[in-house]
Design brief:
- This protein is an all-alpha fold.
- It has five helices and two strands.
- The chain has one domain: Up-down Bundle (Ferritin), CATH 1.20.1260.10.
- Strands 1-2 form a two-stranded antiparallel sheet.
- Helix 3 runs antiparallel to helix 4.
């Protein structure tokens, strides 16, 4: 209910919301960990290979933090309805595959989609961090903020690589 411009939800509802949306991000990250290494060796730009490797390592750390959040909340990872982000990632890898005969264009596609995925994750982590504040759980807030900061750093790296290669085209 909206009262005095504030959302007044029960703590249980907020926790369920947080877990449901954490599940969606977790499913997407699981997919990235399995899919990104497959394109790592095929990346044409050496900077991109490094960025993909760094992204995979960061995603693994983020998943460990998310596992801790699940543990704190007494919840388990659920596949549930995670088609949104997973669908985006699946579509991204299909589009990347369309450019397999043109390494430069393929790498630009990789950069484009990874940048978009990181942006969505950043936005998601920002909202979940606000929820953690509302739930008055400092540890969960800290873990989510660390994931946000890593996603932000990865997105910035991808943007810089994009700018480098687009400006040389």
């Amino acid at each position: 209910m909206l009262e005095n411009n504030k959302i007044n939800l029960e703590k249980d509802d907020l926790e369920i919301f947080l877990i449901n949306h954490l599940d969606k991000i977790y499913a997407a990250k699981s997919m990235l960990v399995s899919e990104l290494p497959q394109i790592l060796d095929n990346a044409y730009f050496s900077d991109l290979r490094g960025a993909i490797y760094e992204t995979v390592e960061d995603v693994k750390k983020q998943m460990v933090r998310m596992d801790e959040i699940y543990q704190i909340m007494g919840a388990a990872v659920s596949e549930g309805n995670s088609n949104g982000l997973k669908g985006l990632i699946d579509d991204s890898f299909k589009d990347i595959g369309l450019h397999s005969s043109n390494p430069e264009l393929r790498d630009m596609s990789i950069l484009f989609y990874l940048h978009n995925i990181e942006s969505i994750e950043m936005a998601s982590f920002q909202i979940l961090e606000m929820l953690a504040v509302k739930l008055k759980n400092g540890r969960i807030k800290q873990l989510i903020k660390q994931n946000y900061e890593e996603a932000k750093a990865d997105r910035t790296l991808l943007l810089l690589i994009n700018a480098k290669y687009i400006s040389t085209v």
